[in-house]
Design goal:
heterodimer; A: alpha/beta; six-stranded mixed β-sheet; 16 helices; B: alpha/beta; TIM Barrel; eight-stranded parallel beta barrel; 12 helices
C-alpha cells in the first residue's frame, strides 16, 4: 500500500459502539472488542484452538501474532482499517427490514444484515483488508489464500490489487467448476487461481495446498486464511476483523429499535461471518445466537458438513476443534450444496461456544437452502449466497415461533450471483427428476 | 525411551557415526509387505527406521508421500493393522529402533495414551510429531513418555536459536532437523548453509539430531555424514516402491533393500546398522 494514503480521521467517539471498550480499543474503531477472555496467549478457547502445524510455519505464525499486537496498539493501523472498510468496502452495511419475508414467516420481524452489499459481495472483504494491511506492515509482497465458494479468493485478490501485492489462490477443482464466475473475477483482478486436484477437490484440499505452499514460501509470503480456522493467531485475528459486523448490528439495533435483537442467525462453515456477528454480542445473554450448518443430504457421514452438530473434537488445519473424521482421525468426506460450507472443520471459538452453550447450532438441508434462496429472491428481491441461504431457512423457522414484537437478525453474509449457474443446474436436475418420476410406471 | 533407541543413539554419539534412517509408509504398497521391507532395510545397513502412519491431510508432505498415504488409506491401512505388522516384524527378528511419524490428528482422536501403550507393546520406540509445536508438546511428550516412548520434534531452518534450544530440551528422542524450508520430496541440491545450520544446532542441543526432507541420493547422504546422527530419506524410497510396482514381476522388498543399501553405503564402510 502506498504510504501517501493517509485516511482522514473524522470519526468522533460518538460513532463508537455504545458498550464497554476493551483494552484493545484506542479510537472509535473497536477491533475485536474482546471481553470474553478467549483466546489465551497460546490461542486456546477453553480446550480448543492452539497451534498444530509443522515447525517451519511457526516463525510466520509468531510474526503475525506480534505484528497484530503491535497494530492493535497503533492508531494509524486502526485509522487505515477504518478508512478502507468504509471508503473501499462501503461499510457500514445496512440492517434492512425484510417486510415481505416477515409477512411470509408470520412471526417475529426479520432484519437482514446486508453483508452482500459490501464490496466484492460478501463479508470476506473485512478480513482481507485487515490482513492485507498486516501483510504490508510485515513487508511481505506475496499473498496466498484458499477459497471454497470463491468469495474469500475474490476478496483476497481484491485486497492484493488494492495494496499492490501478488496473489495466488488455491481452489479445489470441483469448486472451480461450480463457482466459475468467481474464478474469472479473481483472474481479472490479477491473481493466479491454482486448481487443486487432490482429495475431494474442495475447500479442505485447497487449504492443504495453501499450507504446503506456505511451508516453502513462509519467509516472503503471507497466507490470508479466510475463516476463523487454522493455527493461532488466525482464529482470533479473523474474528476480530469480522467483528465489525456484530458491532454495526449492535449499534444499528440500538438506533432502530432502542434495544438489541432477540435472535441473531448466521451460517457456519469455517464460521467467520458467524464469529464476526456473534462475538460483539456474546456477553448479552438476552440475545439468542444461532449458528446454522450445512445439513446436506442427510445425517450420514459424508452427506453433510454439519461439523458442530454431528462431529467430534479433533485436529485439522492447525487447531483443535470439532471435526468430521473417522475413529482414527482421518478426515471424512463432506458434502454441501454450498461450496463455502463444504468443509469438515470449524473455528475453535465455535467449538467453545457450543460447549459453553452460548450459541445454539443447528443445520438445514441442501433442499431447504435452495428453497430459501428462491424465497428471498422472490419475496425480497435479493439473491442470497447459497451459504447465507442456510441462515435464511433456519431464521424463517425461528421467526415463525416468535411473537410479532420480537426481532430476528439474519447475517446475509453474501450475495448469490456466483451461485446462479449452479442453482440453475440443480433446478434442471430437480425438474428432470420430477418429470422422470411422473413418467415412470406406477 | 526404550533401551533399543537409547543404546542406538548413545552408540552413534560415542562412535561419532551417522546412520541412514529410511522412511517408509505403513501400508504402501500394501500391509503384507511391511514386515519384509523392515527386514530388508535392516539388512541393507539402516540404523533406524521411520514408519509413516498414513494421514488424510499431511500438510508437510509433497506429492510422493501424499499419494502413498492416500493409497494406503484406500487399501484400509489402520492403526491396528500397522501395529500387528510391527509386532510380527519384531518376532521375525527386526531389531532396529522404529519411530512412528504420526499426525496429531490420529493421536488425539485415537487417544494419545491408548495409542502410545499399544505402539509400545507392538515394538515401536518413539513418535515423531510433525505437527505438535513447542507450545503444545510438553503434555504430549509426557503422556507418551509414560509408556516408554520417545518424542521427536521438528526444528526448521526458520526456527530461531532460542527456540531450537527449547525444542531440543523437550525432545526425548532425537531432534528432527528439516534440511529445507518446504515440504517433503526430492531436491536436486540441498541448501548451501545446511552444514553450518547443523553445526549450529549441535551447539544448541546435546540431543541427537537426524536430518531429513529433500535428501534422496547417496551423494547427499555422504555430504551429511558426520554432521548429524541420522540422515532420513523418504520420498526417494516411496518413489522406488511406486516404480517397482509398475514392473512385470514387482519385488518391492528387494527394490527397497537395494536402494537403502546404496544410500547407506557411504555411511557403512566399517560399521553396519546401529
Amino acid at each position: 500500500m502506498s504510504q501517501t494514503v493517509v485516511p482522514p480521521t473524522n470519526r468522533s467517539a460518538a460513532d463508537a459502539p455504545a458498550r464497554r471498550l476493551s483494552s484493545s480499543t484506542i479510537s472509535g474503531m473497536d477491533i475485536g472488542g474482546a471481553s470474553s477472555g478467549v483466546p489465551d496467549a497460546l490461542g486456546h478457547f477453553g480446550p480448543y484452538g492452539g497451534a498444530y502445524v509443522p515447525e517451519t510455519l511457526m516463525i510466520a505464525v509468531h510474526q503475525l501474532a506480534d505484528e497484530y499486537d503491535r497494530a492493535l496498539k497503533d492508531p494509524e493501523f486502526r485509522r487505515q482499517f477504518e478508512y478502507y472498510i468504509r471508503e473501499f468496502a462501503g461499510r457500514p452495511t445496512r440492517l434492512y427490514f425484510a417486510q415481505r419475508l416477515t409477512d411470509y414467516a408470520g412471526g417475529a420481524k426479520i432484519f437482514l444484515k446486508r453483508e452482500d452489499l459490501a464490496h466484492t459481495g460478501a463479508h470476506k472483504i473485512n478480513n482481507t483488508i485487515g490482513q492485507g494491511l498486516l501483510t504490508v506492515r510485515m513487508g511481505k509482497k506475496r499473498i496466498i489464500a484458499e477459497t471454497g465458494a470463491g468469495q474469500h479468493g475474490v476478496a483476497t485478490a481484491t485486497a492484493a490489487a488494492a495494496f499492490g501485492m501478488t496473489c495466488d489462490v488455491y481452489m479445489g477443482a470441483e469448486d472451480i467448476r461450480r463457482q466459475s464466475l468467481n474464478v474469472f473475477r479473481m483472474r481479472l483482478l490479477g491473481s493466479r487461481v491454482i486448481s487443486v486436484e487432490t482429495g475431494s477437490r474442495t475447500l479442505k484440499d485447497a487449504t492443504n495446498e495453501a499450507m504446503r505452499d506456505w511451508m516453502g514460501s513462509v519467509e516472503h509470503t503471507h497466507y490470508i486464511i479466510g475463516s476463523v480456522v487454522g493455527p493461532h493467531p488466525f482464529p482470533r485475528i479473523v474474528r476480530d476483523f469480522q467483528s465489525v459486523i456484530g458491532q454495526e448490528t449492535r449499534r444499528q439495533s440500538i438506533e432502530m429499535f432502542g434495544r438489541l435483537p432477540d435472535c441473531v442467525v448466521a451460517c457456519v462453515g469455517g464460521g467467520s461471518n458467524a464469529a464476526g456477528m456473534f462475538y460483539p454480542l456474546v456477553d448479552d445473554a438476552q440475545v439468542q445466537l444461532v449458528g446454522v450448518e450445512a445439513g446436506g443430504r442427510g445425517a450420514a457421514l459424508g452427506q453433510h458438513s454439519a461439523t458442530l452438530s454431528l462431529g467430534r473434537p479433533g485436529v485439522l488445519h492447525g487447531s483443535l476443534s470439532y471435526v468430521l473424521q473417522n475413529a482414527e482421525g482421518q478426515t471424512a468426506d463432506v458434502h454441501s450444496i454450498s461450496a463455502g460450507l463444504d468443509y469438515p472443520g470449524v473455528g475453535p471459538e465455535h467449538a467453545y461456544w457450543k460447549d459453553t452453550g452460548r450459541v445454539k447450532y443447528s443445520s438445514v438441508t441442501d433442499d431447504e437452502a435452495l428453497e430459501a434462496f428462491e424465497l428471498l429472491a422472490q419475496r425480497e428481491g435479493i439473491l442470497p449466497a447459497l451459504e447465507s441461504s442456510h441462515a435464511i431457512a433456519a431464521a424463517v423457522k425461528i421467526a415463525r415461533t416468535l411473537d410479532k414484537d420480537k426481532i430476528v437478525v439474519i447475517n446475509l453474509s453474501g450475495r448469490g450471483d456466483k451461485d446462479v449457474m449452479e442453482v440453475s443446474r440443480l433446478m434442471e436436475l430437480r425438474s428432470q427428476a420430477a418429470t422422470d418420476a411422473k413418467g415412470a410406471p406406477q | 525411551m526404550t533401551d533399543r533407541l537409547t543404546q542406538c543413539l548413545t552408540r552413534l554419539r560415542a562412535e561419532k557415526r551417522t546412520v541412514l534412517c529410511p522412511f517408509i509408509t505403513a501400508g504402501y504398497p500394501d500391509m503384507r509387505h511391511l514386515g519384509g521391507m523392515l527386514m530388508a532395510l535392516q539388512n541393507a545397513g539402516a540404523g533406524m527406521v521411520e514408519l509413516g502412519f498414513p494421514f488424510s491431510d499431511p500438510v508437510a508432505d509433497g506429492p510422493v508421500i501424499q499419494e502413498s498415504y492416500r493409497l494406503a488409506l484406500e487399501k484400509g491401512a489402520d492403526v491396528g493393522g500397522i501395529l500387528a505388522e510391527v509386532r510380527g516384524a519384531r518376532e521375525a527378528g527386526f531389531k532396529l529402533p522404529l519411530l512412528a511419524m504420526i499426525s496429531f490428528s490420529i493421536l488425539f482422536r485415537y487417544g494419545t495414551p491408548r495409542l502410545a501403550a499399544e505402539a509400545a507393546a507392538a515394538g515401536i520406540d518413539g513418535f515423531i510429531l510433525p505437527d505438535v509445536t513447542l507450545e503444545e508438546a510438553p503434555a504430549v511428550i509426557e503422556e507418551i513418555g509414560r509408556h516408554g516412548l520417545a518424542g521427536c520434534l521438528l526444528v526448521a531452518p526458520t526456527t530461531p536459536p532460542e527456540r531450537r534450544r527449547a525444542i531440543g530440551a523437550l525432545c526425548t528422542g532425537f531432534v528432527y532437523y528439516l534440511s529445507v524450508t518446504g515440504i517433503t520430496g526430492e531436491r536436486t541440491s540441498l541448501p548451501a548453509d545446511l552444514s553450518a545450520n547443523l553445526l549450529e544446532l549441535r551447539r544448541l542441543t546435546d540431543r541427537p539430531v537426524c536430518v531429513g526432507f529433500g535428501v534422496s541420493t547417496p551423494q547427499q547422504v555422504q555430504a551429511l555424514s558426520g554432521l548429524a546422527d541420522g540422515v532420513i530419506v523418504g520420498s526417494a524410497l516411496i518413489r522406488c516402491i511406486t516404480r517397482e510396482m509398475a514392473a512385470d514381476k514387482p519385488d518391492v522388498v528387494r527394490a527397497v533393500g537395494e536402494l537403502a543399501g546404496a544410500l547407506s553405503a557411504p555411511l557403512t564402510a566399517n560399521n553396519n546398522g546401529c
